[in-house]
Design a protein that fits this description.
Order of helices and strands: HHHHHHHHHHHH
Shape: globular
Structural class: mainly alpha
Number of strands: 0
Largest sheet: none
Distance between the termini: 32 Å
Length: 315
């Protein structure tokens, strides 16, 4: 039997894994912005990134291809859309119109949107007042972040709206994936999402004004950033997150997600020299506070309920 010290050390590694995944995702917005500034288009960046991730994932998970039914296969296609092509293309296009920090902050609303959407679809999952309090603060923060954008003539609200669409897509993704998680392992699901994400994005290339030559990827900045996005943010971070969630639990792991916008904010200032007004900082604080408060109050409510239940059934 492993000692408590060994177990704690093992758990620490999974905490580090979750933190590294969030760090990679926070920096991914800056990496995508650098590719946009080097002439690549949003859809191209997404296709390059996820094609690379799919090929790498195929080397790890390649024993099974067909799902259990056509219905499940249709769900995987939907996951590829809302968790792949629509989500990331919306996010990438948003980076052309607004601050990198705005995109990261607004997409961090996806956990709250997931709860609200689940409550709308299922009566048993109706959110309590705790969620509404957190949601109100967070959405007020979004309003201030968007208002902050209006101070710059080069920034358009379209980017913030697309970021909100991306957050909503991820909420839909989170609800659908719950059913598939009970039937398939994380590696298989991730590979399927990568595959259908790329396939459903290919028709979108038709709307691109021009296609950048793949030879441009041989230059240092594009190559480093595509490798980072494909292998670091998509492959490594997704696998680290799946392993960490399986070991330390989804609730504990999700706490690290609160730091993603902070990571983006710091690196966008250091690398891209993005300036944010006081209103922007207040909006940032309200978004983070709202998301954290909703989660904290909900968990406290569940803990109190469980304690009361245990005390009632105790002989």
């Amino acid at each position: 039997m492993p000692s408590k010290r060994t177990s704690a050390k093992s758990n620490l590694l999974y905490h580090v894994g979750a933190a590294l995944a969030v760090l990679a995702w926070g920096i991914s917005f800056i990496s995508t912005k650098l590719l946009l500034e080097n002439g690549f288009h949003p859809i191209e960046i997404y296709i390059y990134r996820f094609t690379l991730a799919y090929i790498a994932m195929l080397l790890i998970s390649h024993k099974r291809f067909a799902s259990n039914s056509w219905k499940d296969e249709a769900l995987f296609v939907i996951l590829g859309l809302v968790g792949g092509s629509i989500y990331f293309i919306s996010e990438n296009v948003a980076l052309e119109y607004t601050y990198v920090s705005n995109v990261s902050l607004i997409t961090s609303l996806s956990p709250l949107l997931t709860v609200l959407l689940a409550g709308f679809l299922y009566k048993s999952d109706r959110p309590g007042k705790e969620i509404w309090i957190g949601s109100s603060l967070a959405f007020l923060g979004v309003g201030l972040v968007i208002f902050n954008s209006s101070f710059s003539l080069t920034i358009k609200p379209l980017g913030d709206i697309l970021s909100l669409l991306a957050a909503l897509c991820w909420a839909v993704y989170s609800i659908i994936i719950k059913k598939l998680n009970a039937l398939y392992d994380a590696f298989y699901i991730t590979r399927k999402v990568f595959f259908y994400g790329v396939v459903t994005a290919l028709p979108a290339l038709l709307i691109e004004p021009e296609i950048t030559s793949p030879m441009e990827l041989l230059h240092t900045v594009p190559l480093v950033n595509i490798l980072f996005l494909g292998l670091g943010c998509s492959l490594f971070a997704y696998l680290m997150w799946s392993l960490s969630v399986g070991k330390i639990g989804a609730i504990t792991a999700s706490n690290y997600m609160y730091f993603q916008p902070v990571v983006t904010l710091i690196f966008s200032f250091l690398i891209l020299n993005e300036k944010i007004t006081l209103i922007g900082y207040v909006g940032c604080a309200l978004i983070l506070l709202g998301v954290w408060l909703a989660d904290f109050l909900q968990r406290r409510k569940e803990k109190a309920y469980n304690n009361q239940y245990n005390s009632n059934v105790r002989p």
